[in-house]
Design goal:
The chain is of the alpha/beta class. Helices cover 41% and strands 11% of the residues.
Length: 495
């Protein structure tokens, strides 16, 4: 039963309602339960909060015992960005693999199964899918999180993903509006800028969001990016022109607008999280995502008080805050109705692996003989971006060890990675695993060194396959999820 603490006025409740905070630990802390009683309506979950499906179900039940209509949100894209399987790697390939297959029915099936698993654990809002058109191959933060570089392809798969996810009663949150694909800067670290004309933005970046809105996406997440053709002064998250003028009025979107994480340096390092949150709500956002980094009661209090003070000073109209809070409550109501109205579909536990197998692109397979002896797997490992995180395992070593017991592995980086790989491998056949070779000169140089001495090396690209294929066999997986590694290992071992 939903209860509110006595003495909590409407304005304060509304200010709490628009926040989507995170927390630390695998059970809900007392401060979070207290805030739910005072009006907090959403909670964001991250990998640090999850150890198993059973534990997650117990956690969401704990939250709902305090507030039965709470929105429980998660950043579960599948593929490289997983929270459900943060310590094992995802059972689903990511968007780029689905785009490589280009079967919208398959994308819908994958999203529906992912939604079924989330709903079974009590999660009802997913900060996915990424609708970004990855038009810049050097993009450091989107990459394989995008369905591809063609707007029409991204649009049709975004719509299919939204439909599939919401068929399970889990609200989709299409991101990162108006499009984060043409950036060379990671907004976790700084403020990216997209300098293209408005007509290019309309035809390229906005096409997938049109499709998502038509498909009925229940939420849209804003991007912390500066787009001078739309607003030369403020990033999208803080821009009335972009959130209200473009997304609401021009595109006709009337669902929930959620900000990307406010503690990301693109906002926190320029405006600060309190000022940024006030400007975001004033610009047209309805929910403030925070908690990836700042995850405590003090953060919630600071943001609540900043919103209340902005209303009292006249900077933030009270009606705008009330409207935002009403949209949060409306989405909570939809999730409750959607869950009750939809029969639980039968699990399809193999759909992710089927998709990963179909996404493989092989070069040199005709002359390749599957390995029978255990190889040496050299993972040429770049620094993971914050969205992906470095706690999630990736690669093919574990799957190859299962198929070829005795497989050994090592991780290498930097200018000596090639020579170190050769020394560690000894006489064993080398399987070199890379991630976005085209973005890392040291990685390309390491492959050069290895292939000069060992031309029979198998190369597996688990990022964007932009570099020319090379090696005795080259496998492009279009992502680094666990199932992508399994699909590649099956080819190498002839399983």
């Amino acid at each position: 039963m939903t209860t509110f603490a006595s003495g909590t006025d409407t304005l304060t409740r509304d200010a709490l309602t628009v926040l989507q905070p995170g927390f630390t630990g695998t059970t809900a802390p007392d401060w979070l339960l207290r805030r739910l009683g005072e009006g907090l309506a959403s909670v964001g979950l991250f990998g640090r909060n999850i150890t198993s499906a059973e534990q997650l179900s117990a956690l969401t039940a704990q939250l709902r015992a305090e507030r039965d209509d709470v929105l429980v949100a998660i950043d579960e894209e599948g593929g490289d960005v997983t929270r459900l399987e943060v310590r094992t790697g995802s059972s689903f390939p990511g968007n780029n693999a689905l785009g490589a297959v280009d079967d919208v029915d398959l994308t819908r099936e994958v999203a529906a199964e992912l939604g079924r698993r989330l709903a079974a654990c009590g999660v009802n809002l997913n900060w996915a899918p990424s609708a970004d058109v990855n038009s810049n191959p050097a993009n450091p933060v989107i990459g394989v999180r995008s369905f591809g570089a063609e707007p029409a392809l991204v649009a049709r798969h975004t719509a299919a993903y939204v439909t599939g996810l919401q068929s399970a009663g889990v609200a989709a949150c299409t991101k990162h509006f108006p499009g984060h694909g043409d950036t060379a800067v990671d907004s976790h670290h700084a403020l990216p800028r997209i300098d293209v004309p408005a007509d290019v933005l309309s035809a390229r970046e906005l096409a997938p969001f049109h499709a998502a809105i038509t498909a009925g996406t229940r939420a849209v997440m804003s991007a912390h990016i500066l787009v001078p053709a739309l607003d030369p002064d403020r990033p999208a998250t803080l821009s009335h022109r972009i959130l209200t003028g473009l997304l609401r009025r021009e595109l006709g979107y009337d669902g929930l607008i959620v900000t990307d994480g406010m503690e990301m340096r693109a906002i926190a390092g320029t405006y600060g999280i309190e000022r940024g949150s006030v400007l975001a709500i004033a610009a047209g956002a309805d929910a403030i995502c925070v908690g990836g980094g700042l995850a405590d009661d003090e953060t919630v209090r600071r943001l609540r008080d900043a919103l209340v003070a902005a209303v009292h000073s006249g900077e933030l109209p009270e009606a705008r805050l009330a409207e935002a809070a009403d949209r949060v409550r409306s989405l909570a109501g939809w999730t409750s109705t959607a869950k009750a109205a939809r029969p639980q579909p039968a699990p399809d536990t193999e759909v992710g692996l089927r998709a990963a197998r179909r996404a493989l692109r092989l070069t040199g397979a005709d002359a390749f003989t599957p390995l029978t002896d255990p190889p040496y797997v050299a993972a040429l490992t770049p620094v993971a971006n914050i969205a992906v995180g470095d706690e999630t395992p990736w690669g093919v070593a574990a799957e190859l060890f299962r198929l070829l017991p005795g497989t050994e592995t090592g991780t290498f980086s930097g200018e000596d990675a090639g020579l170190a790989t050769l020394a560690a491998a000894g006489p064993r056949r080398i399987v070199a695993v890379v991630r976005d070779e085209h973005r890392h000169p040291w990685m390309a140089a390491a492959l050069d060194t290895v292939l000069r001495s060992r031309p029979d090396t198998v190369v597996i690209e688990m990022g964007l396959p932009q570099a020319p294929p090379r090696g005795a066999l080259h496998i492009a997986t279009h992502g680094a999820a666990r199932v992508c590694g399994r699909a590649a290992a099956e080819i190498i071992a002839g399983a």
